[in-house]
Amino acid sequence: MAESEHLQQSEHLQQPEHLQQPEHLQQSEHLQQSEQYCSFLIGAYRCAVSMHHITEVLAQERLTPVPLAPHSVAGLLNLRGQILTVLDLRASLLPPGLPLSEEPMVLVLERGSQSFALLVDAIGDVLRAADEELLPTPETIPACFRGLTTAVIQQGELITLVLDAERIAQAGAAA
User: Fold this and answer.
1) Among 3, 57, 95, 100, whose Cα sits 20 to 30 Å from the Cα of 27?
2) Contacts of 97 (CB under 8 A, 6+ apart)
């Protein structure tokens, strides 16, 4: 058999069934090209951050207060010997006096080689969204959130604000 005929025949051969991956394990192109986001609540606002930046989710730990710190700094957290600044976005984004949830959570984020943490009211689901599912931030979102928001994810009536970790860190440092 000529080499060109052999190559043409091998192009049409399929992998034997016992070596093929089952359909339920095959990922669609959509899932392969989407990004995951960890959702959380800040007051009544559902927000999310890319999972690329999240290193840990913790039940609220004991925070060490920082005298004369801006109101957006909730305190310091000793996480296995690493001292992290914990930012309370509620303090800078929501009206004063709103009570913190009964069981707040701490979201540890990494930005480059630096880590910091966010104090949030609750942790939600992991969301998956492809680039085409990320919508521009509507003008109806309060201005204080718009500065941190890169996009929104709409799932039915539910809107999730996608926050940028870099902007959050900058806002915490500037406060």
Assistant:
1) 57
2) none
